[in-house]
Amino acid sequence: MDILVAGGHGQVALRLLKLLAAEGHTARGLIRKPAHAADLQAVGAVPVIGDLENDESLAPYVKGADAVVFAAGAGPGSGPARKRTVDLGGAIKLADAAVEEGVRRYVMVSSIGAQDPAAGGEAMRAYLEAKGEADAYVTARAGLDWTIVRPGGLTDEPGTGLVTVSRELGGRASVTRDDVAAVIAACLTTPSTIGVTFELFGGSTPIDEALRAL
Asked: Membrane-spanning residues where (predicted)?
């Protein structure tokens, strides 16, 4: 498969690209800064230079893909405006480009609490609102086989390959970035995840088994 990962230099994205390349896929990462290209090449990925935030269309980058993954984010130091243009606007652009280019498979890396931004407190509200609206757009966009993944608190501990997934929203627990990447990679080839929004935490069930049970 040819898979384009938006936000290709992120911590989860780099792990994902490495996994996809190791599995024999064409793993392409959309990045804004040319200086980051070497980091993608080091994990076997193909850097694609483009501006998720400011380019009018992402269709030229999506062209030729079999699936897309939205793993971008404005980051914790950004203000509400950039959360709207990146976390929301970027996700919308990627969805529109996928439909335009006939790419049905779309996996979204979302956030715990996106279904209830007010419960996240004032500091998190703008971020959760952007994520929630992005999820709503993608799930309503005709022509997409979507999956929404909402990971718990991210850690840098080594992945275990064991997780807990739940369609019931509102859980709280942590999960390693390694395991988030592995789950996203598995979603791309697991039909039972299509049309599903689920939360993801560390757990005791092997990833493939957990996803097949969704």
From this structure: none
For residue 55, give the nearest of 90, 7, 96 by alpha carbon.
90
Taking residue 173's Cβ as centre, other Cβ atoms within 10 Å add up to 14
CB 107 within 8 A of CB 135: no
Closest CA to 57 of 24, 15, 90, 10: 90
Structural domains of the chain, ranges and CATH numbers in brackets: 2-212 (3.40.50.720)
Distance CA 25, CA 112 (A): 29
The DSSP-derived string for 83-104 is IIIIIIHHHHHHHHHHHHTT--
For residue range 188-209, list pLDDT tens digits in order.
999 999 999 999 999 999 999 9
pLDDT score for 120: 72
Q: Is 137 a catalytic residue?
A: no
Q: What pTM did the predictor assign?
A: 0.95
And the tokens for 50? Answer: 């483009």
The whole-number average pLDDT for the span 92-101 is 98
Determine the residue type at 141: R
CB of 9 within 8 A of CB of 39?
A: yes
Q: Are 73 and 34 in contact (CB under 8 A)?
A: no
Compute the chain's Rg from CA coordinates.
Answer: 16
Tokens of 151: 């990971």
**Catalytic annotation, pick one of 61, 106, 127, 137:** 127
